[in-house]
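Please produce the structure of this protein holding NAP.
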Amino acid sequence: MPLTDYRTALVTGASSGIGAATVQALATRGLQVHAVARRARKLEQLAEDTGCTVHQLDLCDTDALYRVLGEIEVDVLVNNAGLGRGFDTIVNASREDIERSIDTNVTAALHVVRAVVPGMVERRRGHMVHIGSIAGLYPLLSSVYGASKGAIHLMCQNLRTELKGTGVRNTEICPGRVHTEFFDTAIDDTGRRQSMVSGFELLRAEDVADAIVFALDTPWRVNISTIELTPTEQAPGGIAIEPVKRPGR
Ligand SMILES: NC(=O)c1ccc[n+]([C@@H]2O[C@H](COP(=O)([O-])OP(=O)(O)OC[C@H]3O[C@@H](n4cnc5c(N)ncnc54)[C@H](OP(=O)(O)O)[C@@H]3O)[C@@H](O)[C@H]2O)c1
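Below is the modeled complex.
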């Protein structure tokens, strides 16, 4: 089902970063795009720039989520809204960080799927693109954020099996570091925040939007299951070559 066969898209977390770039990319390709986020002024600007339809909505308000999304016929879902509170180690995460991250990244993402998937199955047309992270695939010293994105990884894999035979496709996009407002929300310490967005050239939001469009634009027989993209100078993993020295041994 190439992109030209889809008519409507719903992008969550559309007011900045990857979401805003994706709204732009999909609107350029002729889709009627519904953009969801909380910040009204950013959404108004996006509507002015792209012609998208905006919905000011806190996805953690589950009743409002079902009310608003239940009204929209969605061909393409970009399940993108997310944040990185508690991005550092769990020792440095507050109770509120953990709850906010799981409520937004996991619970709301599942409700968004639940709200749109019945219509897709009924129409036998739909493609859900879920924004995971390399933090959901590899240990990156971030157990709270990693747990939330690991959940997205297995949600997407399970959706692939649950929806087999319905005509609905599922793709997970796993970016490495992208230069967006993500780190402003995630990290309070200015020095640490700055270190996350400097030192090498990060991905741009448009690079991730390009990957999303690529997955959407494949022929119907093709389901791109996972795309992992990182900055050229960022590679997860590797083991220490030097043995760890322990006192007294
Ligand atoms: N930047 C990275 O390095 C990176 C890497 C891998 C994966 N990701 C993932 O990519 C996705 C997009 O992040 P980004 O980098 O583009 O950061 P961003 O610019 O901070 O965008 C996050 C978006 O999520 C929205 N959002 C957050 N909580 C929401 C809520 N309760 N209800 C509705 N919308 C909400 C925000 O809008 P409002 O504040 O206006 O509501 C914003 O539009 C996230 O899932 C993130 O985990 C980012």
